[in-house]
Amino acid sequence: MELVEKTYCKFVHGLDVESLNPNKKYHDTEYGFPVEDDRELFARLVLEINQAGLSWSQILHKKDNFYQAYDNFNIAKVASYQNEDFERLLNNSGIIRNKLKIKAAIFNAQQILLIQRDFGSFKQWLDLQHPKSKEDWVLLFKKNFKFTGGEIVNEFLMSTGYLAGAHQVDCPTYAQVLKCKPKWYETLNIRD
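Above: the chain sequence. Below: its structure as tokens.
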């Protein structure tokens, strides 16, 4: 019996109408599209970290709660969180209440502030690192951030356009992503 891997594209296109939100919206408008804003990059990193061990659907259902709980992912605010903020997050039933994931969000915000100071922005730092193999990206993230294993880094980079693979070539969203020229697209040396 041959095992067929179910991709996110097949999963989303196979959902019944009532199940489409929020996966369909995320798949069609965010997943794989380049992200230019540091705050949104930080948000995506935190969401990917929180997905570890859970389904992406759970994270998408709690996405608005995460934005509210983490001050709209204002990097400077999250970096300055104190013990009372940690406790507030730990007691917030609208998000994932995992001590290590909350500590990672705060630490990673602090790291992004350092990166912004040294490189101008998190986005510029990511751009300067590109292109790298998935393995090299993972090593880089482990050196600079917490709670960034291989799958988290891979999904973060695919979801923000740094690594290919977010969509199947025959997925209609793939063509939309290509129009936005994600970073991985540059390495293909394709001319318009």
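Residues 137 and 153 are 7 Å apart (CA to CA).
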